[in-house]
Amino acid sequence: MSHHVSRLGQRRGGRSALPYQPRTPLLRLSGPRRVRRVAMLSVHTSPLHQPGTGDAGGMNVYIVELARQLAAQGTEVEIFTRATTGALEPTVELAPGVLVRHIDAGPYEGLSKEELPAQLCAFTHGVMQVWAGHRPGYYDLVHSHYWLSGHVGWLAAQRWGVPLVHAMHTMAKVKNAALAAGDTPEPAARVIGEQQIVRAADRLIANTAEEAGELVHHYEAPADRTAVVHPGVNLGRFRPGDGRAAARARLGLPQDALIPLFAGRIQPLKAPDVLLRAVALLVDEDPSLRHRMVVPVVGGPSGSGLAKPERLQKLAARLGIADLVLFRPPVGQDQLADWYRAASVLVMPSYSESFGLVAVEAQACGTPVVAAAVGGLPVAVRDGTSGYLVAGHDPAEYARALRRFAADPGLPQRLGSAAARHAQGFGWDAAAHSTADVYAAALQERRRRLRSPHG
């Protein structure tokens, strides 16, 4: 198996917009890209896992797509993740220039994300064993994802003498400030851990200007070390394709139905219950909708939703809409694109979203979105153009938004066309170029400090 790729992508392509301007602008390199190889850390969830269940979600997609594009642009990526089965090879080639390394740390099965801090020492040991087998300077930089990985990255970057770039993806203080009813607060240990990582990182990557502001406000992150890079979407996979009618035919859905879709992990944070309650209100107001509405819920239990995985099914029964709700397990990316295309509208009533990749994926497929005006969703969704943003989580407000689609059968097509155009601004190539700029700035700053007599 080759660990090398040709040096592609020397020209500079498009970049994600950076609405949050740090006090010190990011350094721009005019010469060849200097970051040759990145150690990317994802302790608690593997890029090989199926998104939509367990702890696998948008972060998995983010890591896979970012790594692919970085490699295509000339930066090799090795992703370190915890082994969750003995059936996988220690090293798997995900794509040319992208390796996934499985690290033994604790039992393969039966460990929740909350139990993983006790395994960080074992995980770090495994990472160091891999590093010890290489020549000095093999990795130019460490990029960690989520706070658990950040602690491993902190030690690895110091030991190797390279910069640490960290992406939070979610933050305990932000999640705790917007808890859904019945959800479990993030522990104090995570808050402390995140604060330590913010102080240790050479650069922090935020998905949106709002997230960058939250890092500065809640964690006192230095503004000149915080960069905004919007995540992307695989525009080759998520596209309108052959249209809504063909997708519905493939999925066995009625052609003339109003289909509000929920896609993602089933947990209180994502608030699928808000959609079900909104649908119940719609049907109570207009009983004829019962004969022309299908409500797919595509995803599996996750997080605190694992405690009572049947909760949503029981809620549908109590609301009297069990005959309308179609529960489906998580599906692969190609079939997920068909669910997006088939839907009249995607509904995302989340209490917290660092960005909301699902919203951009749906729009790229030509499907409008009704979403909570939280986190990165106001960036992902253009209110009134590619969908509608809802303040709060009152089911009546979501019912009001969905009523527009029930009353106007042409609305999904009109908003969907604008949604597809809006999503074109979120390609992974631009996100990878901007991430590479962050890498280069961190590397140049470290080299400058090493050359300085006061560094």
From TrEMBL:
Pfam families: Glyco_trans_4_4, Glycos_transf_1. SUPFAM superfamilies: UDP-Glycosyltransferase/glycogen phosphorylase. GO terms for molecular function: D-inositol-3-phosphate glycosyltransferase activity. Residues 246-420 form the Glycosyl transferase family domain. It comes from the Bacteria. Residues 57-232 form the Glycosyltransferase subfamily 4-like N-terminal domain. This is D-inositol-3-phosphate glycosyltransferase. The gene is mshA.
